[in-house]
Amino acid sequence: MPSGNIDKPIIEDNHDGTVTIKYDPREEGVHELAVKFNGEHVQGSPYKIHVDSISSGYVTAYGPGLTHGVTGEPSNFTISTKGAGAGGLSMAVEGPSKAEISCHDNKDGTVSVSYLPTAPGEYKISVRFGDKHIKGSPFNAKITGEGRKRNQISVGSCSEVSLPGKNLRRRHTLS
């Protein structure tokens, strides 16, 4: 937990070769989840998870794509703007490869975001509201796996999607 205290999640055996991990965080901030099999970290572990109060009135982001992913597979997360008022929403995904970003306004105060990393490594996901980073931003996602390798150089591009009372800018940056 952010305080340094250790908490244990509930682990349920699904009896099909998988387990379900449930965790009810009691502190806001960055939590670290270590997942081990036979004493060894599984791929991508330890995972960093940012926890915020859902009723904070601030723009928040949550979902697995903010902490980890696999090359060649979409990484997903959600941005909640409920109760945040009007303002510009923008995001950027920077890492070892260009990551194509797609956004969908869910018309309920949330935006579903998906990006496609094409090379392994650390990706920095910046989410800004009113030109200020939201709580936890920039997020660092650990992308693993071989995935699809591309030998190309990409330059940044920008596009805008209109949301009710907001402008959503998507920026693709190669670093």
UniProtKB/TrEMBL annotation:
<feature type="repeat" description="Filamin">
    <location>
        <begin position="1"/>
        <end position="51"/>
    </location>
</feature>
<protein>
    <submittedName>
        <fullName>Uncharacterized protein</fullName>
    </submittedName>
</protein>
<dbReference type="InterPro" id="IPR044801">
    <property type="entry name" value="Filamin"/>
</dbReference>
<dbReference type="Pfam" id="PF00630">
    <property type="entry name" value="Filamin"/>
</dbReference>
<keyword id="KW-0677">Repeat</keyword>
<dbReference type="InterPro" id="IPR001298">
    <property type="entry name" value="Filamin/ABP280_rpt"/>
</dbReference>
<dbReference type="GO" id="GO:0030036">
    <property type="term" value="P:actin cytoskeleton organization"/>
</dbReference>
<feature type="repeat" description="Filamin">
    <location>
        <begin position="51"/>
        <end position="143"/>
    </location>
</feature>
<dbReference type="InterPro" id="IPR014756">
    <property type="entry name" value="Ig_E-set"/>
</dbReference>
<dbReference type="GO" id="GO:0051015">
    <property type="term" value="F:actin filament binding"/>
</dbReference>
<comment type="similarity">
    <text>Belongs to the filamin family.</text>
</comment>
<dbReference type="InterPro" id="IPR013783">
    <property type="entry name" value="Ig-like_fold"/>
</dbReference>
<dbReference type="InterPro" id="IPR017868">
    <property type="entry name" value="Filamin/ABP280_repeat-like"/>
</dbReference>
